[in-house]
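W.,

You were right to be curious about this one. When I first looked at the sequence I had no strong expectations either way, so I just let the prediction run and decided to look at it fresh. Below is the sequence, 203 residues in total, followed by the output.
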Amino acid sequence: EQNNDPPPPNLICCGLNKKMALFTDQSIDLLELQKNKVGTNQSGILRHKEQGNLFFGQGKYEQALSSYNSAIDQIILIKQQQDTLDNVRLWGELVSRRAAVYLRLERPMLAMLDCNAILQHNPLHVNALHRRATALESLHSYKSALLDLQALLHLETDKQKLQKLQLRIALVSDKCDQKSVEDVTALRDAATKYATKNSGSSE
């Protein structure tokens, strides 16, 4: 005769406990794999960063750019998994170094965009402010460059660096004033040409 009675509660609990233990073990294994993967990626990031620094010091800016790009691609993937403060800082450092490379390669627009990305996360990032000011100055956006330099006055603590910063602010201010004069002159010349052209055609 077939027994249709349900199994005793203690057997059910035993089976559930075994399944939970197996699930827990699998979850722990998965976490360990993720940690090991992140650790491996971070060592790769640091290797690319060191290579980039070496290339930068040797003046090999295209190679430095390639190394920093590789490191940035990897830290972005890690940030998506673990958006920790340390990972954000490392990302900011790498992007700032890439901005420095862009400046050496005379690509100020790309340098400015990198600095913008950093300053959105950390408005007080000193290197990003310095490099964006340099990029803006190269793009003849002297007023915007001046704002970044003036912001640095409140962040810089080294006396020697402060003196250099004040001198730079004075130079950029002169360029700003000169550009304003040039803009006014250009507008006046354009207005004169327009008036002359229209007065000639009405006769």
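Here's what jumped out at me. The mean pLDDT is 82. And, maybe more interesting for your project: The helical segments are 9-57, 61-81, 85-104, 108-121, 126-138, 142-153, 159-201.

Coffee later to discuss?

I.
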